[in-house]
Amino acid sequence: MRRLVLSLLVAALGVSGCAYKVNGTPVAGVLDVDPPFSSAPPTPTSNPTSASNPKPDRNVGDICKLLTWRDLPYDVRDKAAPPTETGYDPSFDQSCKWQTSVDKLDVGVTLRFRGGRPISLDTSNGSFDVGGRKLTYFDRTTDTSVQPSCVLVMDYAGGGIGIIVIDGSARFGAICDQGKKVAEVLLAKEPKG
User: Fold this and answer.
1) What pTM did the predictor assign?
2) How far apart are CA 181 and CA 185, in angstroms?
3) In contact, 47 and 118? CB cutoff 8 Å
4) Of 57, 80, 120, 182, which has fewest CB within 10 angstroms of its CB?
C-alpha cells in the first residue's frame, strides 16, 4: 500500500512539475511608466535647422518595424502581428509598444525614438556595453510607485532611443536584461542614415 501511495505521489508531482508554457494575446491599453527621460522636445525657433536645434533625420525609416514579437520572449498567438500601438507619444518622432497579458499582468516593451539628438535619463543606476555602445539603464523593479520596469537609453541612428520593459510576472528573466536584448536586436538592424 505504501508503495502505491508513494508511486501516485511521485507521478502527481511529475505531472504538475516544473515546466509551463505562458500563452498571451497582444492587448491594447496602458502599458507605460513615466519615462525619466531628460531630453525635452525641441522648442520652435525662427531657424528650425540651426545647430542648436538640428532637424531630425527622417531617412531612418520606421524604427518600430525593426523589432517584432519574434524578438521578444512573450508567447503570443501571432508572432507576425504588428506592435499593439504606434505613434502614441507626440513628444518623440516615433513611439510604439508591444503589449500582452500574462496571468492578468500586462507585460511588454515600449520604444521611443528621437532623431537628431540623444535621449538621456534623469536618474540611472547602471549601464551595459552593447556592441561598443553605452546603454544606460534605470532599474525600477523595486520601485513600488510604478510597475516593475527598466528604462534604458542609448544613442541610435543619429539620434536617441528609449526602451522601457515592463514585466511584473518575473517569468522572462531580469527586466533590464530583457531591455539589453532589445537593444542588441535594434543595433543589429540599425539604419545607416
Assistant:
1) 0.73
2) 6
3) no
4) 80
